[in-house]
Structure formats: C-alpha cells, structure tokens
Amino acid sequence: MPHAGASQMEGCVLVRLSPSKSSPSEASKLQGCVRNLRQIMTCCLTALSGTGESGKSTFIKQMRIIHGTGYTDEDKRGFTKLVYQNIFTSMQSMIRATDHLKIPFQYQDNKNNALLVREVDVEKVCSFDQPYVNAIKMLWADSGIQEAYDRRREYQLSDSTKYYLSDLDRIADPSYLPTQQDVLRVRIPTTGIIEYPFDLQSIIFRMVDVGGQRSERRKWIHCFENVTSIMFLVALSEYDQVLVESDNENRMEESKALFRTIITYPWFMNSSVILFLNKKDLLEEKIMYSHLVDYFPEFDGPQRDAQAGREFILKMFVDLNPDSDKIIYSHFTCATDTENIRFVFAAVKDTILQHNLKEYNLV
Hints:
Elements: E1 4-9, E2 12-17, H1 24-42, E3 43-50, H2 56-67, H3 73-77, H4 80-100, H5 109-118, H6 132-140, H7 143-150, H8 161-165, H9 168-172, H10 180-185, E4 193-200, E5 203-210, H11 214-217, E6 229-235, H12 251-264, E7 272-278, H13 280-286, H14 306-318, E8 328-332, H15 338-359
Parallel strand pairs: 3-5, 3-6, 6-7, 7-8
Antiparallel strand pairs: 1-2, 4-5
Helix pairs in contact: 4-7, 5-6
C-alpha cells in the first residue's frame, strides 16, 4: 500500500512516496495526500498578533527587507515626513510630561522653545526647518527633558525617541534620506488589517498584521479561522509600563490576557503558536534601573539580570497554555535588528512547515 512520509533535510522538506500496487480508493487517498501537501507547501497564512507597540509592524518591515522587495531610495523618501512627525510627537509628549510631573526646565529659554514646539500640528508636519530644529535640540539637551525621558514609563513615549533625537543634525540636513534603520524605527499605529505576502523558496507566506490596541481587536479576532500559525509578539520591556487606553493597567498583564485568549480560541486549535519575546535590547537597558520584582512580586531572581528577567517573562506566558500537548515555540528577538530576525525567521519557517505536515499526518 502506498504511504507518504516526510523528513527534513537542510531546511527543506523531503517527501517520500513508496510505490506498490494499490486499489483505486488507495490511489485516491494518495492523490488527496499529495494535494494537501501541495497546499501546505505553496501557501502559509500567518497571523501576527500582540498588543499595541509590541513590534508587529517592524517585523513586517523586516520581512520585506529580508524576503521581499526591500526599500528603494524612493520608498525611503516616503518615510521622511513620518520621521519628522515622530520627532515632534516625542518632544511634545516629553514637554507635556514636564508639566504633569512638575519637572522644571534647566534653562528658562526652553519655556519659549516648549511653547513653539507644542503649538505644532504634528499631522501637518512635512519638513524640519528652523526655528524648530534648534528649539528641539535645545530642549533635548535640557536636564528637565532628560528627566522626563528617564521617567517615560509614567506616560506614553515612543521607543524610538532617543534614536531620532540623538541624531538631529543628520535628520535636519536638507539632503536627508531615511536609512533602512530609520524606516524600521518609524512608529505608525496599525489600524485595521494589513496583509503582506512574500515568496520564500516557492512558498507564499501571507503575513497579516493586525491592530494591537483594544479598539482594533474586535475587527480581526474572528477573521482567522484557518490560519496556519499564530505569531504573537510580546515587548519584554513593557513590564513596567501602562496601557495607552488605561493608565492604571500594566501593559504586560494586558499582553498576557490577550495571549491567553488567543491560544484558547477554538479557531486557532490547529495553528502552531510562535511566541516572540521582542525588544530584548530595551529590556537589557531598562532592567538595570527598573526592577522587575516591583511590578511582578513573584519574580525571585536577581536584580539587574536581563537573562533571569526574560526567562521569567517567558515562563509567565508559557504557563498560560492550558493544553499540555500544544507546544509553544519561543524566540527572543530584537525586531529592529535585521540579522537577528533573519536568523529567527529561518527557524520559524521550518517550524511552521513541519507543524503543517504533522497536522496532515504527512510526517
């Protein structure tokens, strides 16, 4: 009787069909098996999920860089005004924080600079000229703004703030063209559902990025009945931060709640689950001064130890899985690091394909 088996060899899936005499019904079963295999090996629908600002959109950009068309100079030019807008948004957030947190400016002149920057309608920003360049440079150099930046866990501030504000001379140059890293760092909140297909060794991956904020979830949670896999992103650095929607709720607790909801949905019962513990670089920086135990008292590891911290966070999420037979595949990532994502996704691709073969009893 013919049988189908599969083994993995150097990142590829090798299918063995053993010939023998067979009945028409057995031949039909084999043909169905091959059709299923062809479907598995030609298209994989992946839902990219996680709470707001966990790094989903950055991951999609990396897929375009690594496995897609990348970003031409013309593409990068289209991000120029978004970089400018991110700079104004970040500075306005810190200025408001100095008021709310009662932090005085170091230099009196910066009161006027703050007024100038606060009056800007960010959505209309399409250039970065004087007097705004100088005003933002002076504000960023002010110890009051630096204190507001250090206390950023107490309000909402983009992770890219320091990256852009530390490089204002380059960005303010009239000939400025965003770099690939500038593009990766741009913050654009995702609304609705965005699908990005890319071809990887004759396999079409359809990766779907969905809005992470609470208001966006009801738009997509029912749309993925037949997804091949769920990729769930958690920002490791959010353990001491509060939600955009509610300033008395912890972001990581919200992320845990969403993850628990997703892995217990009947729609995702047969989907592989891949957990990306993202922003490991920010965790390594933050854990030196913001102690995990202050927000998660059950943490009994050493302070200022990023390795212990991330393993604790991983265990918190894995423990949410009620099905002991369902494997949660996990990876620690930095979504702005192209080589890190290239390496991780190579492993993820094989995980997804092997999981699919098992679901169809082909391995």
